[in-house]
Amino acid sequence: MDNNIDFKRKINIPWLFRMALRDSRRNRSRLFLFISAIVFGIAALVAIYSFKYNVQNDINDQAATLIGADLAISGNKPVDDQLKHMLDSMGDERSQERSFASMLYFPRTNGTRLVQIRALQGGFPYYGTLETTPEAAGLTFKKGRMALVDKTLMLQFNARVGDSVKVGNLNFQIAGILNKAPGQSGVMAGIAPVVYIPMQYLEQTGLIKIGSRVNYSFYYKFNSSVNVNKLSKNLDPVLDKAGMRFETIETKKDNTGRAFGDLSRFLSLVGFVALLLGCVGVASAIHIYVKEKIASIAIMRCLGVKSSEAFLIYLIQIIGIGIIGSVSGAILGTAIQHLLPLVFKDFLPFTISVQISWMAIGQGILLGVIISILFALLPLISVRNISPLNTLRMSVDESGRRRDPLRWLVYLLILIFVIAFSYLQLDSIMGSILFTLGILIAFMILTVTAWLLMRITKAIVKGSWSYLWRQGFANLYRPNNQTIILIVSIGLSTMFICTLYFVQTLLVQQVNLSSSGNQSNMILFDIQSSQEKGVVQLTKQQGLPVLQQVPIVTMRIEQINGKTAADLTKDTTIKIQHGVFAWEYRVTFRDSLTSSEKLLDGKWIGQADPSKEIPVSVEENLSKRGNLKIGDKIVFNVQGVQMPAYVASIRKVNWGKVQTNFQVVFPKGVLEDAPQFHVLMTHVPSNKVSAAFQQLVVKTYPNVSIIDLGLILSVVDELLSKISYVIRFMSAFSIITGIVVLIASVRISKYQRIQESVLLRTLGASRKQIFTITALEYWFLGSLSALTGILIAFAGTYFLAKYSFEIPYSVNVLPALVLFLIVSLLTVIIGLLNSRGVLNKPPLEILRTNA
Amino acid sequence: MNIQWPGLVTTPAFSYLYHKKIPVDNILNISNLSKTYQSAGRTLTVLDQINFSVAAGSTNAIVGPSGSGKTTLLGLCAGLDRSTSGTVELNGINLSNLTEDQRAQVRNQHVGFIFQNFQLLPTLTALENVMVPLELRGEKNIRARALDLLDKVGLSERGHHYPLQLSGGEQQRVSLARAFSNAPRILFADEPTGNLDAETSDKVIKLIFDLNKEAGTTLVVVTHDPELAAKTQRIIRIKGGKLISDEKTINA
């Protein structure tokens, strides 16, 4: 007699695969619908990753043209003789450049605009070219009194090649249009358009004066095999001492890569949120799927399939569709990647190539499979507990079944995965925990809302209500409802859109606010002491108010409590940030605080006693960076003169206000005779007045620079809309995912609703009645989730405004209301569209096809 | 520890077998079997101290009114569920000591099932449904053997059809082919004709008994149908969770 049962029967893997394939036969399209929720998240990530890798390659390929030389050294003060000797002896080819802000005047059209003047000498750029029209102008302009003028500037002032422009005291002929300077991106060009002039004419422009913020750059090309990195390392201490920086092709690669890395990391987090949202959809769909499979699983168990085998059969199915979903996502992402250069072109200083990145595709697919398995595991582990008794009677102790303790392990795995992934993106433990926590809180608020909704509707639905309302409400809480998943996915998408919108309007509002009213909206700077009276007079002649008039002295900090920058490098325990010593401070002197300042600590002293140390006031943030307390000794270096001072007070400064604000304020009676320049602020009522006034000032005082806030405003506005375009582009993936989850959820519940709707129709319910029931249900779902999402957005915006942007909080309810209506209606429409199969077909047909 | 004390077996049903002193001749030994459920703080006794044995190769019916516990008894006998107390010994294997996965192996090796609602896997074809138990056992020549079984139930032409494409009677015949595919020592049938019309019922019943005779399988059938019960050799009656009678029929 055969009593020897082989209890350790080996799991027959090929058979499991065969069973998984067979079992999926009639469900494949549905399974794919479930998994399609992750497609868009994966697509977003693959697109961003591909883009990232391509950009990395581009940076590597184009780094040389970004910097234009093998080595670039720059600083913001003239070099001394010793250093000059060294700088002049390096390299096989050398170029020099002085750049500074100045007004540019177009005599033909009378236009003026603040630009960045670059006075160039030598053969720079050695790699790449100054892209100009005509092409030769990039080289020939250095041969005469000629200039290259930025493309947008040419357009703005309707200038033509051959026209003349005035820089300072000197006229230049426009040799060509500057299309692109090395290492410059579209956004930068908008803020400070570049004009190149030959360096030999710089002196004659008369623009290099006291207080002029000139940047001195030296470019080198090495023909022989000089190790530039080694050389620059040796140079580093010398340059550091002189307050100069250097850049090599290698460091440029790193810096550009890092700057772009931050952007791509942020964007991949946005994509990841879309993926997470999709995964929640997958988990909920699989939950229903497993419920429907209970009968099949019970039969298999009866026939001798082990619980682990049953679990594996469905796991294989999930892995299979996970792979299909991820691959589809990767394909879609690779296609979408072609759009990204269009989105980002204004932010990047180089040409972006589009290539298929197998690395990105691999990462995307791996991520997709792992995360779809993790989330599917939650409902899948219950497969192990399905009893074969279900064959004899359905719903065997279904309710009393203990929930599988393994699910806590799955929750833990998911949590670890989310933290780990966000850590890879953010590179900060704290950041990734905060990110995970934020997502968790949003999920929880929405889940609790859904749960409360079900509880409340269950409690308030009364028999006395009209049947249609009762049924519509009842659909929210009855078994196998999709309330939670729908509220979470719709709510989360709504929250995203809404928060983005709020933050964007807050930022724009903030800028608008500062330019409204009678506040200063034009700043004149680089006014020399000899010109001060004249400029004031000119302003008043034009009927414009002089709102503020401030003298500025530039200086550096030499010592803090006897410690110098050199001590800082030796002794790492000193709690002073290095930048405190390197910074060139623009300091004013006055006898009182301004309206944007508030005393935090110490005593304000407005007049210095010549026989004592100088009492200065430092700004809050500087006191933190320099670890400065009341009474601390600071030695300032005012253009070669040592000035011992002490911290008399610490101020809080509202930097948001458009006026001159200072990190360090001296009292009166010390700096009056120091070399200085002046700033004047005024309010111009219109663009026309602004243009006329600018022309007048530039004609009379060519060295005075003018910032028109209206212009800044339009630049900021443009920049913000570009940024928000990028963010909107990425969040579109979350929104699409939300819609897919919505469609999938409605489809799944459709299978369960069919029976009931058919029963209702059989009992004589009209199409209109079923239509109303369905519409009511989705209206509740859509409106409640939209409302919750918008409320979370209100709160989120508040925290962002308060802690991240530090600007006053105010939101507009009307757009939120519009969003609310759109989301609610969209939910109803999608719900009805997907249920129309039940509405339009005769009951019998549906019964037959779905039996 | 579950020790079988032969002396404790006192039911008349067991005693006549007991004298043969060859316990393996009993394919199924049930002793002191009870099943209770905890529901809302109260204990609900579904089966109360059931004792009986089933001889190898015999045909048996378990009958009783709805809610008498006969389906629960079948589930316990077939190792689909765990008893509260007492033991089930199937083909010499004490099921109480086994884990659910081990019981699954016992079912795969020794037990065949027929259900009232057929319980075919809806996504598998008729042929594949018959193949599953063989595939689980890792046997050879599976397709040919499954086709042969389908042929025996008269459905050799319909192997590629899905259960939904088959009539009730056809589905039950597929499930019969499946039940016999692993050459079980014992076949459990739960109301095998409950969902069939009279004419189809007769055909299916005839098939069950024919196949059973041919394979020498033990049959335990739970039924309401007195006609079906009368075709077996022995009728065990259950009421309120207790065994109330155990009679041999004229077929014995």
What fraction of the residues of chain A are assigned to beta strands by DSSP? 15-25%
Total helix count of chain B?
8
The chain pair forming the largest interface, with residue counts per chain, is: A-B, 38 and 42 residues
Number of strands of chain A: 20
Radius of gyration of chain A: 34 Å
Total domains of chain A: 4
Distance between the termini of chain A: 44 Å
What's a concise summary of this model?
Chain A has 851 residues and is of the alpha+beta class.
Written overview of the protein:
The complex is a heterodimer of chains A (851) and B (252). With 851 residues, chain A is an alpha+beta fold. Chain A has four domains: 214 residues, no CATH class; 155 residues, no CATH class; 230 residues, no CATH class; 135 residues, no CATH class. Chain A has 25 helices and 20 strands. Chain A has a six-stranded mixed β-barrel with strand order 2-3-8-5-7-6. In chain A, strands 12-13-18-15-17-16 form a six-stranded mixed barrel. In chain A, strand 2 and strand 3 form a beta hairpin. In chain A, helix 13 crosses helix 14, helix 14 runs antiparallel to helix 23 and helix 22 packs across helix 25. The longest helix of chain A has 54 residues. Chain A is elongated, with a radius of gyration of 34 Å. Chain A starts with 12 loop residues before the first helix and ends with a helix. By secondary structure, chain B is of the alpha/beta class. Chain B has a single domain, classed as Rossmann fold. In chain B, 34% of the residues lie in helices and 27% in strands. Chain B contains eight helices and ten strands. Chain B has a six-stranded mixed beta sheet, sandwiched between helices. A four-stranded antiparallel beta sheet of chain B has the order 2-1-4-5. In chain B, helix 4 packs across helix 5, helix 4 runs parallel beside helix 6 and helix 6 runs parallel beside helix 7. The two termini of chain B are 35 Å apart. Chains A and B meet through helix 1 and helix 9 of A and helix 2, helix 3 and helix 4 of B.
